[in-house]
Amino acid sequence: MWRFIKTYPLSIIFVLIVTYLSLSQPPKVIIPLFRHWDKVVHFIMYGGLSGVIWLELLLKRRREKTGKTFFINGAVIFPLLFGGMMEMCQHYFTRYRSGDWWDFLSNMEGVVFATLIAWFILRPLILNKPVDKKDD
Q1: What is the 3-state secondary structure (H, E, C) of the chain?
Q2: Domain spans of the chain?
Q3: Spatial separation of the C-alpha atoms in residues 129 and 95, rounded to whole Å
Q4: Across 6-11, average pLDDT
Q5: Predicted local confidence at residue 134, as pLDDT
Q6: pLDDT single digits (tens) 88-115
Q7: Structural contact between residues 23 and 65, judged by C-beta atoms closer than 8 angstroms
Q8: Mean pLDDT over all residues of the chain?
Q9: Mind listing the pLDDT tens digit for each residue in 50-103?
Q10: What pTM was computed for the model?
Q11: Which of 60, 51, 59, 61 is nearest to 14 (CA)?
Q12: Cα–Cα distance measured from residue 100 to residue 105, given in angstroms and rounded to the nearest whole number
């Protein structure tokens, strides 16, 4: 358990922040910047979540070999399922929020965008860098 927390601290913090923002009561007065601005917020939150998970998984991969399914499960499948679960929790467990398919679609778009950035930009940068070996 501690090893998991030490390996993925940013991902855990990000999950807790997204959970809080998804289930807390929104402010009474919201002045929208433009129509459907909340979809952009969903895109950023879940793109950020997926991006942070990608970053930590890639850094772990640099230190020790892990398979590609580990990336897909951790950085793609988990944020998608988590986004769906948050929408269901909003619908069934809060009186002040509602689950929305369009929000879920925005979550998925954020995850896909972060995955493309991570796969084509971050992955080559991180995995092609030589690993600093500590002298013991």
Answers
A1: CHHHHHHCHHHHHHHHHHHHHHHCCCCCCCCCCCCCHHHHHHHHHHHHHHHHHHHHHHHHHHHCCCCHHHHHHHHHHHHHHHHHHHHHHHHHHCCCCCCCHHHHHHHHHHHHHHHHHHHHHHHHHHHCCCCCCCCC
A2: 2-23+38-127
A3: 49
A4: 90
A5: 58
A6: 999 999 998 888 999 999 999 999 999 9
A7: no
A8: 88
A9: 999 999 999 888 877 776 777 788 899 999 999 999 999 999 999 988 889 999
A10: 0.86
A11: 51
A12: 9
Placement of tokens 């929020």 in the chain = 97
Residue type, 11: S
* Section 8-36 average pLDDT: 88
Q: Would you tell me how many other CB atoms lie within 10 Å of the CB of residue 15?
A: 17
- List the structure tokens of 87: 């929408």
Tokens in use for 74? Answer: 């951790």
Q: What is the pLDDT of residue 4?
A: 83
Token pair for 88: 């269901």
Rounded Cα distance between 128 and 124, Å, is 6
